[in-house]
Write a structure and sequence with these properties.
heterotrimer; B: alpha+beta; Rossmann fold; 2 domains; 6-stranded mixed β-sheet; 5-stranded antiparallel β-sheet; 9 helices; 20 strands; C: mainly alpha; MetI-like fold; disordered C terminus
């Protein structure tokens, strides 16, 4: 209605075109172009120069410059990724950690989200705020808090020793366990909130109907609640899995040095090895992986909604 | 009306216009009268769907006009085109003889009361009512006066500082009405104004709305899908279906003299009998009810196809054959299939020998007289020739 | 029917405990007089006192605040425009690309966003520093802003705008008097999120920063990489306190605002 009004006015005014062009131009310049540059550099060769890659675009040389530029591009970096097990292992590790911690988050987050929906309205609102609140404190601080707790003579080990659960204090830091703890801690709100949102909308009468038809309590949960919360599960999983794959800070501060996650690999290639083309190639492959994952999740969500 | 001086001024200015009482108000019968709003061959399509199709209509100053039809018939689209929210594909809308096409909605001298009221949630009642006046650049003191008048008019004095969410549904409806009336529009458009009210409140509000319209002497166009609402409030009703006007007439004519089977069936209940015009031009032969005599000559050649419509309340049920044996027409035996008791009247569903289902409504005037007829009784059905409406389409 | 079982209670207590205990421990340890984390040396505020003398750290905090203020404001402006363009302008050329560019940064790993930004700045030979961090943060945050404001605009009851126009307000006036006040809560929330994201960001800032523009997270990161330090406990506790106060203040403000409504006048 309003749209048709806007359109019908033939003079798309100066202000109206500005509303589109300003953010559009900004994103083109600072999102699309940078990504195209990454793509281009991933096809370039490492060079001991500034910037440390070749070929560079030489506009002064005109058409010849363009030709030599394209002739200089190659897929060598991608071939290199395929041959060096370091990268494959790194990708595998990222996917594995992301998958397993998403599962952990589901197992931990579901009972919490479910319990919140059982509370009176006012208490629900307060708990939702309580769940969101840690998200507003710095990510770095929250990971650092766990460094405090997990260190060799930290509170956790002191507690375990005091309770005689362990005789020797175990090392927590620099292990995958610590990474999982850090991830679950950091991403829990992202899992609980979408789950809560779907569970909260669930029509209580459906459960009453199931009970009326002779369905016992646990079966009601299994046959009604769980299937109907599937959209929340998919949303929560998507919201956690995707960023965990590219996670850098958590594995860097809590994890070990044996195999790094892919975010760390990019960081290393870039800052330590100064190998920009390889870092760019690793990044491009990671984007492709994530796009694939999102498409799979989306398909799942679509099929789920068709079933409804 | 306990409004202040300025309040009565507001009302009086409206009342100077040529409508006081409604008795004898029928400008549409006056060939010399100039319509206030003329709609000419208006057409609007949304994609492949034609919402309004070649529609022409005149509305007169001081008229309470109702657009009635099933949902999706295009009545709201028509209203929104008058307000300027939709652009017609073709045709014209003239107000006081001026084409509204180039006038944007915010410059049109018409105001709309929205179905969901569309009260600004961030403004209190006073600010909502004052909104339109501020856009006009009216001086502050006069705005305050006018707002006070409007609050008095809709009997919401003392609630001016409340926010919309602090009001009941009925109060919100009044604020919406006051806001759309504050600018004294040439035409007030009301989009299902009572749809959100409960039934009892709706009834009261209908009469208040009529009263208000009469006092102010403004022109109201109301969109509704509720036929009893349209019948109650309107001077004239336009019945719409699939973007077309089916009939435009005062409520009584719409009911007593529908121009088509569709209108007869849409407004109230009706029994329809298809048949052919008899040789003597005031009878219809070959209907499921036998040979029917109608009250006047039918303007169709003999053997032409027509329908006879009889309202259920015009049907008579008697345990024995009707006394006036002379009229063997308009009379048949039937079995009572079902009785619905509604308090003021009872609805009978009957089946004739020929297997045709007929509805009859009998007013429960006596207390037990009608109890004589019960389920499965064989009874006589009849109706007076004058009760029959002959329809040609 | 809705029953609250002991199992539900346990889930909530464990969940909330898990979320808040680490932060509580961090704050408690920041008052530990002992330099050794394992040893409780009594209460002390010495680490806070030392912070006050740590000029580079204070410098970083100041830089971070300025970056967050500027980038959050710019991101809110650009993101709100983007949301308006997406919701209100019907179809326009490149809309699909535009929408894709709004959503893509939300799922893009920070490492890649940072890397691509850095490569852009190198390619066009811009010296990295304060302003490049701001550009990077603005780009990332504007997408979050756009999504938040967009959802509010989609829910927006169009009949309110029609009512305003019907009552004589021009489109521009309608926007200022009706639309803007009603989407303002979403815009404010989006600004706060953009501010928090900027203040929080380590990875993108690490890629796009240059000499003289070390943000607080970068400083903290370089300090804590090698192990826990009591001064850092104090820094983090202060940040937690500031965020806590800000969130409580914001929620109180919205509550007051909700009760009275924004006194916006046409």
């Amino acid at each position: 209605m309003f749209k048709s009004l806007m359109k019908s006015k033939k003079n798309h005014s100066f202000w109206q075109s500005l509303v589109i062009r300003l953010p559009f131009g900004w994103l083109l310049a600072f999102f699309l172009v940078p990504f195209l540059i990454v793509l281009k550099i991933s096809l370039s060769q490492t060079a001991i120069a500034q910037p440390p890659y070749a070929p560079t675009f030489d506009l002064a040389a005109g058409w010849r410059g363009v030709q030599t530029f394209f002739a200089g591009l190659s897929l060598d970096n991608y071939r290199f990724l395929g041959t060096d097990p370091l990268y494959i292992l790194s990708y595998m590790k990222s996917l594995q950690i992301a998958a397993f911690s998403t599962l952990l988050l589901l197992i931990i987050g579901y009972p919490i989200a479910y319990a919140i929906t059982r509370l009176p309205r006012r208490a629900q609102a307060i708990l939702v705020v309580l769940v969101i609140l840690p998200f507003w404190t710095s990510f770095l601080i929250r990971i650092y808090a766990w460094m405090n707790i997990l260190q060799h003579d930290g509170p956790l080990n002191q507690l375990l020793l005091a309770l005689h659960i362990v005789r020797e204090p175990p090392s927590w830091l620099s292990t995958d366990t610590a990474v999982y703890i850090g991830i679950v801690y950091s991403y829990l709100p992202f899992m609980v909130l979408p789950l809560y949102a779907t569970l909260e909308k669930l029509d209580e009468q459906l459960l009453e109907a199931a009970a009326d038809l002779g369905c016992p309590r646990w079966k009601r949960f299994w046959l009604v609640t769980l299937p109907l919360s599937a959209p929340g599960v998919v949303a929560g999983a998507l919201l956690c899995f995707i960023p965990i794959v590219g996670e850098f800070v958590i594995p860097d501060l809590l994890g070990g040095s044996r195999t790094s996650m892919i975010g760390q690999t990019i960081w290393m290639e870039f800052f330590a090895n100064k190998d920009w083309p390889t870092a760019a190639a690793v990044a491009v492959v990671l984007v492709c992986l994530l796009v694939t994952a999102i498409v799979i999740f989306q398909n799942h969500a679509m099929r789920g909604s068709e079933r409804d | 009306m306990h409004a202040g001086d300025s309040g009565s001024e507001f009302v009086k200015r409206g009342a100077e216009r040529p409508t006081f009482g409604k008795r004898g108000f029928a400008p549409w019968t006056d060939r010399t009268a100039q319509p206030l709003l003329r709609i000419q061959a208006l057409r609007k399509r949304f994609g492949g769907f034609t919402a309004v199709d070649q529609l022409s209509l005149d509305v007169y100053q001081g008229e309470f006009f109702a657009l009635l039809g099933p949902s999706g018939c295009g009545k709201t689209t028509l209203l929104r085109m008058i307000a300027g929210f939709e652009r017609p594909d073709s045709g014209r809308i003239l107000l006081d003889g001026v084409d509204l096409a180039p006038v944007p909605p915010h410059r049109r001298p018409v105001n709309m009361m929205f179905q969901n009221y569309a009260l600004f949630p961030h403004l209190n009642v006073e600010a909502n009512i004052a909104f339109g006046l501020k856009q006009e650049g009216m001086p502050k003191a006069r705005i305050a006066e006018r707002v006070a008048d409007m609050l008095a008019l809709v009997k919401l004095e003392g609630l001016g500082r409340r926010k919309p969410h602090e009001l009941s549904g009925g109060q919100r409806q009044r604020v919406a009405l006051a806001r759309s009336l504050a600018k004294r529009p040439r035409v007030l458009l009301l989009d299902e104004p009572m749809a959100a009210l409960d039934k009892k409140l709706r009834g009261e509000t209908q009469f208040e709305l009529m009263e208000l319209q009469r006092q102010l002497g403004l022109t109201f166009i109301i969109v509704t899908h509720d036929q009893s609402e349209a019948m109650t409030v309107a001077d004239r009703i336009a019945v719409m279906d699939r973007g077309r006007l089916m009939q435009v007439a005062p409520p009584k004519d719409i009911y007593e003299r529908p121009n088509s089977c569709w209108v007869a069936d849409f407004i109230g209940e009706v029994n329809l009998f298809e048949g052919r015009v008899g040789a003597d031009a005031d009878s219809v032969e070959g209907t499921a009810f036998g040979r029917l005599r109608v009250g006047r000559k039918i303007d169709v050649e003999p053997q032409g196809r027509v329908w006879v419509a009889v309202r259920p309340e015009k049907m008579r049920i008697t345990p024995a054959a009707p006394e006036r044996q002379a009229s063997v027409e308009n009379c048949a035996t039937a079995t009572v299939v079902d009785i619905g008791y509604l308090g003021d009247l009872s609805i009978y569903r009957l089946r004739t020998e020929a297997g045709v289902e007929i509805r009859a409504a009998i007013a429960n005037t006596g207390r037990s007289a009608d109890q004589a007829i019960g389920w499965d009784d064989r009874v006589w059905l009849s109706f007076a020739p004058e009760a029959a409406i002959v329809l040609t389409r | 029917m809705r029953k609250f079982s002991p199992l539900n209670l346990a889930a909530i207590i464990l969940g909330v405990g898990f979320l808040y205990l680490p932060i509580a421990i961090l704050v408690i340890y920041s008052f530990n007089a002992s330099r050794l984390v394992a040893v409780w040396g009594g209460w002390s505020i010495q680490w806070y006192a030392e912070l006050a003398a740590d000029a580079p750290l204070l410098d970083s905090a100041f830089i971070s605040l300025r970056v967050a203020l500027i980038s959050a404001t710019a991101a809110t402006l650009l993101g709100t425009l983007a949301a308006l363009a997406l919701v209100r302008f019907g179809r326009f050329r490149g809309k699909l690309l535009f929408a894709a560019m709004i959503y893509a940064p939300l799922v893009m790993p920070e490492v890649i966003t940072g890397l691509s930004m850095l490569l852009l700045f190198v390619a066009v030979a811009i010296d990295r520093g304060f302003w490049t961090v701001i550009i990077a943060h603005t780009t990332m945050a504007m997408c979050f802003v756009a999504v938040i404001v967009q959802s509010r605009l989609i829910d927006f009851d169009m009949s309110l705008e029609e009512a305003a126009m019907d009552l004589g307000a021009s489109p521009a006036r309608t926007f200022l008097a009706v639309t803007l006040p009603l989407i303002l809560p979403a815009i404010v929330a989006a600004w706060m999120l953009a501010f928090a994201l900027s203040l929080d960001d380590l990875v993108i800032a690490s890629f796009t920063t240059g000499p003289g523009a070390t943000t607080l997270p970068i400083r903290i990161y370089s300090e804590v990489r090698l192990g826990v330090k009591p001064e850092m406990n104090a820094v983090c506790s202060i940040m937690v306190g500031v965020v806590g106060i800000a969130v409580i203040a914001a929620s109180l403000l919205t509550k007051v605002g909700g009760a009275r409504g924004t006194p916006a006048q046409a």
